[in-house]
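HUMAN:
Could you generate one sequence with tokenized structure?
ASSISTANT:
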Amino acid sequence: MLPDFPLIKAEIKTRLNSWFRNALKGDPLLQIFKEVRHFEGNEFSIHKDGKSVRNTPYTEASSVIPVDRNDVISNGVDAYFGKVIDMLEEISNQKAKMLIDVLDKAAGKTGNIIKGEGPFTPETYFAALEKIDVAFDENGEPIPVSMLVAPQVAREIEEHLPEWLENVEYKKKYDEIIRKKKKEFNDRESDRKLVD
């Protein structure tokens, strides 16, 4: 009979699971949102004002690690670890796609979608900025907003936004939108009910 090392195996399993969870947060989109682990059940509920608003079933994100027996004989445990990165990337992509689908449905219900045709322009950026809530810090400065855009559009925004804001006309339009958003923010904050 071969020896078994349950304590060592349990420690390895704990460390691997922790490493997997951290690696799955590598996608910048997944880092934005807080992750909550549920250990049982097949759905979760969203509650508002003490009432259940809706129940949503969990969606599985999974992957398979195909490992050839000869590869295990040749490379030992490295036969598995070599494929783990691919598995984590696949699961991370599945989770990001699920998140994008949820955000897309929510934005569709509220009308917060801008469908741009052609290149991303300052007008497109300003139209998007008009549709979202902007928060402000304790100094009254706007907290940078997050927009879900295609990777190429993100690169265009990153490349062109600084030069757009140097343009007097665009800067004036941006400042006008920010003033409006500041008033909306102040109105929201003053209407907030404080809990005892």
Q: What stands out?
A: Residues 6-110 form one domain.
